[in-house]
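== Item description ==
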Amino acid sequence: MRFEAEHEARPDRPEFAWRARVHVAPLVVLRVDDRLRAGAGSGEVRLWGLRIAADAGTPEMHSGALHRYLAESVWMPGALRPSERLVWTSLDDTRAVATLSDGGCAVSLEFRFDHAGDVESIFTPARWGKFQGGYREVPWEGRFRDYFEQDGLRLPRQGEVGWYEGGELGLVWKGRVAEFRA
């Protein structure tokens, strides 16, 4: 489905706000609000101003939001610097694992780099997601491409993410950055 979204994130601590308008059908627009603030993930979906889905405050929601923050850090490389919250472990010449800790929760993502050093993809064998009304851990992957330079940084213009089910990646988000402001 076509959508427009704004994403605000903090490179100095795990926080983001993502607000989207998803065009479901003519004159039918869902408003989606996902957040990670003060160690708590939350999500809400509204149709014509009425809340039709919401979730917040669970350990699974926090873990899932932290995974998302870490993956989306490809758009704010300063957030990927080693710190007391973020530890890197090299696997080989093209892969490394980043482990992010926040509010008593820790998540890890494998970052895969191309020959130029750009992040090609991220992967975790177990990210919490809500499926058919319940939480479970499922393999999750994101892919990035079409890098450009802005303010001395190399950033991907396009990305996509999805969950693995039965060995197949099912995309749930695919987007192109229309504008980037640091």
Notes: The chain has one domain: 2-176. The first strand starts at residue 2 and ends at 10. The mean pLDDT is 94. The chain is about 10% helix and 65% strand.
